[in-house]
Specification:
Elements: H1 6-20, H2 29-38, E1 63-70, E2 75-81, H3 90-108, H4 113-122, E3 133-139, E4 146-151, H5 161-171, H6 177-182, E5 192-200, E6 208-215, H7 221-226, H8 235-246, E7 257-264, E8 273-278, H9 287-300, H10 305-315, E9 327-335, E10 340-346
The structure holds tryptophan.
């Protein structure tokens, strides 16, 4: 493929990633859903450049892949994506993203009640900020796909984010969730910000409502404190995660560490799980360094480091030392509803970020 379309390029990556994760080759659903999500944007040639400056990924590709490795050995392939209208604008993108939801709901029986319950809170007529809402499509071998929606708490301005989050919880019948989620996580004033309010669109008992909080210029202490809202979390595992993947970084002054809380149906008052996201690409010189850190981290947890290399090679054959950001984030999930590690991998459809010579671990 000399100058593939965005859909051709990213669907090949997704197909490879699914094959590598043990999905039956006959399962076309992931690629079909990706095609619908990309819509008109997917039909453009990569040489034409992005239709809209999506913040999903650094190079404006409107999708990002991730591989969730559960400590049980199960894995999921996920695609975070922004729906972009043929003639993009915030308003047009919202309309196109709703059409995608309608179509998925018809086709896969995805329940939209949670979306309906909060949409008028987070989707004003003229949404502000970097995005209105994103989807995550979650695929597991031999299971039906799931959909999750990420809303932007700053859609009515940053100063109203707390109000929107509190109202979002209220609409879902979770009056106590706001206090539980803010007691330990937003003690540093403007340095702790609400980033996403997310709802799983399914009606299984473990379907979740999640709140994400970014900790700007923070040490590992901010996530350690945030994790105290969830019972039984071991602070050492958070310190180790930050230390190993941050390569000894003390203060994370690039892109922020992000905490998230998950609430499930069985306890709407207190979060059952805590996750921490580390934007590793801002703390390495190149992807060789990022991969090495993730490998040692996975090995320290008895995880599958070879699987990481297969996932990388499913996406690209570029030499890892030639860029930075293929490994975008790494996250750690802790709590009674499942523990594990997730690796976020960039498509790099439009661009490979340059390396940063000399910014390695010890320099
Ligand atoms: N690209 C944005 C960022 O890095 C949003 C984003 C994409 C993100 N995937 C993520 C944020 C995973 C946190 C975790 O901030």
């Amino acid at each position: 493929m000399n100058d593939p379309t965005l859909f051709e390029y990213t669907s090949r990556q997704l197909r490879n990633l699914c094959a590598e994760s043990g999905f039956p080759a006959s399962d076309n659903t992931p690629v079909e859903m990706l095609g619908e999500l990309l819509g008109e944007a997917g039909k453009r040639r990569l040489s034409e450049g992005p239709l809209w400056p999506s913040d999903v990924a650094d190079d404006a590709t409107p999708v990002e892949f991730s591989v969730a490795l559960d400590d049980t050995g199960d894995r999921a392939v996920r695609v975070l994506g922004e729906v972009i209208a043929e003639k993009p604008s915030m308003v047009a993108n919202v309309a196109a993203a709703r059409r995608f939801l309608n179509s998925m709901s018809e086709r896969l029986g995805i329940p939209t009640d949670r979306f309906e319950a909060v949409q008028d809170v987070f989707l004003p007529d003229e949404p502000q900020g970097k995005f209105a809402f994103w989807y995550s499509m979650i695929f597991r071998p031999n299971a039906s796909p799931k959909l999750k929606v990420y809303f932007n708490p700053a859609a009515r301005g940053e100063d109203r984010a707390a109000e929107l989050v509190a109202e979002g919880f209220r609409r879902l019948g979770m009056e106590d969730a706001y206090d539980a989620a803010t007691e330990y996580s937003v003690s540093r004033g403007d340095l702790d910000k609400f980033t996403f309010f997310a709802v799983d669109l399914d009606d299984s008992p473990l379907s979740r409502v999640k709140l994400y909080i970014s900790h700007f210029s923070a040490t590992a202490e901010a996530p350690v404190q945030a994790s105290e809202a969830v019972d039984g979390i071991d602070r050492d595992s958070i310190n180790e995660f930050c230390d190993l993947l941050g390569g000894g970084t003390e203060s994370f002054d690039g892109r922020p560490l992000v905490s998230s809380y998950s609430f499930v149906e069985s306890d709407l008052k207190r979060p059952g799980n805590y996750s921490l996201y580390l934007p590793i690409r801002d703390y390495v010189a190149d992807d060789v360094e990022a991969r090495a850190r993730v490998v040692s981290y996975l090995e320290s947890r008895g995880g599958d480091a070879a699987g990481l290399d297969r996932a990388i090679r499913a996406l690209t054959d570029r030499p890892l030392h030639e860029g930075r950001g293929l490994l975008a984030h790494v996250s750690l999930r802790l709590g009674q509803f499942g523990t594990g590690t997730t690796i976020y991998l960039s498509s790099e459809a439009y661009e490979v970020l340059p390396t940063r010579p000399g910014s390695g671990t010890d320099s």
